[in-house]
């Protein structure tokens, strides 16, 4: 599959980044505006701050704007959420219903390390607007110079 899908890995990553950012922003909208099946929280509470980070951070990640910073902040938020909310209910994420927080935490940490790569607004403001080369191209460039 790598030979077939490898050529599209930047676009698969961008799709994952957009979907993850959208879902995270939806959590923020739930908290702040009481939409999507949840009552709103006080904006000046801990949940309100979390909702603001989720909404703004998720939107930035989805758009690929300040991606690494937004994803790093979102990753930290999910780590804090896991240890404050879920971990006191049991050790294992499957027991304490913290799987989603753990997944978000590590996916956002990966996005923070990788950036927007392709199809993001960060590319418009960078000095090198072309996406990073694919695996084969990077290998060829590495051996050529």
List keywords for this structure.
145 residues; mainly alpha; disordered C terminus; 8 helices; globular; 0% strand
Query: Which stretches are low in confidence, meaning pLDDT under 50 for 5 or more residues running?
Result: 135-145
Q: What is the count of β-strands?
A: 0
Number of helices: 8
Give the overall shape, derived from the CA principal axes. Answer: globular
Would you write up a description of this structure?
This protein is mainly α and 145 residues long. It has helices at 2-5, 9-33, 46-63, 67-86, 93-96, 99-114, 122-125, 135-144. Mean pLDDT is 88; it is low at 135-145.
Question: How do the helices and strands line up, and which of them pair or pack?
Answer:
Layout: H1 2-5, H2 9-33, H3 46-63, H4 67-86, H5 93-96, H6 99-114, H7 122-125, H8 135-144
Helix pairs in contact: 2-3, 3-4, 4-6
């Amino acid at each position: 599959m790598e030979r077939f899908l490898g050529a599209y890995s930047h676009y698969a990553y961008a799709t994952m980044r957009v979907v993850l950012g959208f879902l995270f922003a939806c959590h923020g909208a739930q908290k702040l505006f009481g939409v999507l099946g949840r009552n709103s929280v006080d904006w000046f509470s801990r949940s309100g701050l979390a909702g603001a980070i989720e909404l703004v951070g998720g939107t930035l990640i989805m758009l690929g704007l300040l991606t690494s910073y937004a994803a790093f902040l979102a990753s930290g938020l999910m780590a804090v959420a896991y240890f404050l909310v879920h971990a006191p209910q049991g050790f294992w994420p499957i027991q304490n219903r913290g799987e989603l927080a753990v997944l978000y935490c590590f996916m956002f940490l990966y996005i923070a390390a990788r950036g927007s790569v392709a199809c993001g607004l960060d590319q418009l403001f960078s000095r090198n607007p072309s996406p990073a080369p694919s695996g084969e191209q990077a290998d060829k460039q590495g051996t050529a110079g």
